Amino acid sequence: MSTTLTDRLRRRLAAAKPGALCVGFSGGPDSTALLHALSQLPEARALALRALHVDHGLHAQSPIWARRCADFCAALDVPMTIAIVQVDTTRGEGVEAAARRARYVAFATALRVGEWLVLAHHRDDQVETVLLKLLRGAGPEGLAGMRELRPFARGWLWRPLLDTPRATLATHVVAHQLATIDDPANADPRFRRNRIRHALLPALREAFPDADRALVHAARLCRAAADYLGTAAQSAVTALQRVAGTLDAAGWLELPDALRAPVLDAWLRGHGLPAPPDAARAELERQAATAADDGVPRVDWAGVEVRVWGGRLHAMPPLAQPPVDWQAPWEGSPLALPAGGGTLELWPIAGATHLFRGPGLPVATVRLRRGGERLKPAGDLHTRSLRDLFQRARIPPWTRARCPLVYIGDELVAVADLWASDRGAEWFDARAGRPRWHDHA
Question: Nearest-CA neighbor of 429 among 363, 366, 346, 364?
Fold first, then answer.
């Protein structure tokens, strides 16, 4: 059986039956070989074959590289799009990770509905990935390496060459005399992957000639285990999830060790939040096990805050500290609240087509908590402290500081859409509306 790159891709296309194809094209040897080989296949061209080049702007030559890629695609008669990105290096994740993040955002933005993003990752890349994850202390999901096919953006991400050695792609480049781009970052020893590629792997292969095959086989076993755990974790999340997307803390702690981390990760992923590092995960387990009934312990990591309160885990992006002295006039129109507090507005009551804003009605003032507030809710015999009302209603402490308070003059007449005094109810009735608080926190 032929082992040329073109023949390998022909067989992969026949087996996978992809939709339209978009090749992630850096201009390096691997993506150049992939794009050229696909361009030689009529069955690939029939799938609206095109290329996407991401210009990270990290090297002085990057605009020249983009033009060279465009010229190469023009010679192949393959359409190409250039995406220029800004790499955010302020997140503390390193240049390599930041560039990858920006690149995949560009891929996701550019991918069309049903299209397959084709990447040139090969067996050597998979070996490097597994070793990198192993040295970071990863579990089955990390040690499983890269998936060949997974949903991505509005289509799919496909790596058809994960079983193909780098040498096969290099042979294709030489055989067809293809000009490629040499990014010096690929040899920069500051990057861990490069140290694995140029120092660790050669020594490992010399000592263990079958190292690549063994590592790829181990990755397949870990993939099977990770997929099984993923299915079990999703079922557990469904069983343990409570109101407002919270997670039952005691139930989570009672899970087997092998399932606790995947469940937490799956739950956070459902909120669009990143998984924790090991130290944060261990601290969250400790806090969940020891939290006092009246305590609100919090564990943070990049982009996430998880609080333990009321027997549940509450996950959210980092919350800004609300300004205590903030206030704004309000007649019922949507009012943006500070520090991620959402929006307060009046909705017309049933039968009303619009809010009434006629003369003679006082304009309210919306504030945030400053301490000591009291309210006599309509129909209640007693004036109560706001703290007591919040506690009775089980309003989370971090929400209380962002809760909009409605005043007429110096009198507190309503607390968001939770409670209103008799005067507050009259004010809402006069405007033919009812308050609605869209809390973003």
Answer: 346
